Amino acid sequence: MAGKKNSGRLVSSAGLVTYYDSEDKRAVHISPKTVLVFAGVVGIIVVVLNHLF
Length: 53
Prior knowledge:
Blueprint: H1 16-21, H2 32-52
């Protein structure tokens, strides 16, 4: 089993890797940093509102 090479695709991915690799020019592209900043801002807003009310 140690001598076998992995083909690079996960069996459990069910084709999602292939779908993710395809680029659609019409799709909205959001950078990962933007998502993290937005999640942080939403988290801060929730904490502040929780303390106020």
